[in-house]
Amino acid sequence: MRSKYWAVGTLWISLYAALSLAPLAFVLISSRASQMPRPFWTELSVGLGFVGLAMMGLQFALTARFGWLKAPFGSDIIYAFHRTISMVAVALVLAHPVLLFATRWEAMLQRPFSHPWPFWTGTFSVICLLWIIAVSVWRTRLRIGYDQWRRAHAALAVLAVAAAIIHVLLIGHYLAAPWQRAFWLIYTLAFVGLILYVRVIKPMIELRRPWEIVAATPQRGDATTLTLRPVGHPGFTFAPGQFAWLTVGDSPFSDREHPFSFSGSAQAALPTAQPHPTIEFTIKSLGDWTGRIQHATPGTRVYVDGPFGALSADRTPDAEAIALFAGGIGITPMLSHIRTFRDRADPRPIWLFYAARDWDTLTLRDEIEHLRATLPTLRVVYVLSSTASIPTAQPPIPAVQGLITPDLIRTHAPDLAELITQRRRVECFICGPNPMMEAVEKHLATLGVPFGDYHCERFNLV
Amino acid sequence: MRERMARLAALALGALLLLACALFAWLRSSGIA
Q: What is the mean pLDDT of each run of 10 residues along chain A (462 residues)?
């Protein structure tokens, strides 16, 4: 299973490199007779521009949420790759005019507007790219709302690529051969097709497969659980730990969608589930949009794009045990795992380490306590900043004050530590704030968990 | 860690593409291709 993901992942990266370099390959194939050689730096500048443009266009494929593309990596990895490779693409694109200017600045200064339209379309494209980077890197500092940012990001990206393609066409160099023209036509059609798919076709599919809120249940810690059922279709199946993009009370064309992990059992979403399939999301109020979820009412239309994500024990069915590490609202994919294992009567042991502030604001606490009491395979350790309000009980509630550390794991889950020491296959899943996830990853490595056996997924996409 | 690896992969790919561009420029400017 895992080697399959590695193989597919390697294939996708190779394909990305091949598609980025394809413009240069087509120039080399078809230019020998038709184009005179130019100086090295001029050719390098042109090469960088072509590759940079192809990479920019490929970003539409990276962010189009193709499940088959994301499966080997997980969505957060695709977005991390997208952020860095976009910077690389912009650097290559910027190097294009810089090199041209550096090699022929005298001629360019003498006749600054000898090619006004190509110059301005190229400049416009670069400005759009720099703008995208500025609003993405400093989104929170510039106080740009998430929805506003998403719309600006998409519009600027389309403008940047469109202007760059017009720039290439207006310059016309390396477009003499029919192959070269056909190549750019196919690339342009592919970019337009991707945009149409994301902005028109996908929302239309969602519109035909609506969901509605069956219940909106308030939870501790300023969170709300939305239970949804499909309307007029059988819904979809998902793996525990996955997530989906939700549009609540808006049109799927509105582009006001946000990613949330499923918190319910994957078994409840099966088409055979009685009385009807349901999916559940538990959403913490963190901003304007999530704050409004608390006031959602049954019957509200919801559009769901999913499932996505690789944070799932279903991807490693040969695991002997699983260990779940949740921080705050990161409990939702973990609860989905526990509920699914319960419903499947999966006999494998599960450890849950749930880090949060205090007992009173512990989201989904009642559900977890119920599962702890009724599911013999489940062991829970609450790791709290304050244990002051924990009631006395017999047997005592397994809560400790502090942080998740190797010592804490050894002390409070000795049988888990023993399995890890014996090199048994324990798959670990981590979801929570970034510093917590990084710390737990480090601690698991210290305990001896192999690199490929711990998994986390980050949701702060910008 | 995985995120760091993804960033590293993107940077490595960027370096590879840059090298390919340099090779392209050399092939074209020298008249080989």
A: 74 93 88 73 94 94 82 81 94 94 79 76 95 91 86 93 92 82 88 90 94 95 95 95 93 88 96 91 87 90 92 93 95 97 97 95 94 96 89 86 95 95 94 93 94 80 48
Tokens describing residue A366: 């009642």
- Amino acid identity, residue A425? R
The pLDDT value given to residue A361: 87
Return the pLDDT at A133.
Answer: 93
Residue B9 sits at the chain A interface (C-beta within 8 Å): yes
* Closest chain A residue to B21, measured at CA: A47
Q: How crowded is residue A201: how many other Cβ atoms within 10 Å of its Cβ?
A: 11
Cβ atoms of A243 and A261 within 8 Å: the answer is: yes
Q: Hey, are the CB atoms on B10 and A32 less than 8 Å from each other?
A: no
Put simply, the answer to whether A44 touches B25 (Cβ < 8 Å) is: yes
pLDDT of residue A112: 64
Asked if A91 and B14 come within 8 Å (Cβ–Cβ), the reply is: yes
**Which of A48, A62, A315 to probe the B interface (max B CBs under 10 A)?**
A48
Alpha-carbon gap, residue A87 to A4, rounded angstroms: 29
Contact B14 A92 (CB under 8 A): yes
How far is the CA of A140 from the CAs of A144, A152, A233, A283, A304, in angstroms?
A: 6, 14, 39, 21, 26
Instruction: Please report the pLDDT score of residue A32 as a whole number.
Output: 58
What three-state secondary structure class fits A361? coil
Residue type, A153: H
The nearest CA of chain B is from the CA of A83 a distance in Å of 8
* pLDDT value for A235: 94
Chain B residues touching A441 at Cβ < 8 A: 1
Question: With an 8 Å Cβ cutoff, is B14 touching chain A?
Answer: yes
Look at the block and give the residue holding tokens 């990853």.
A441
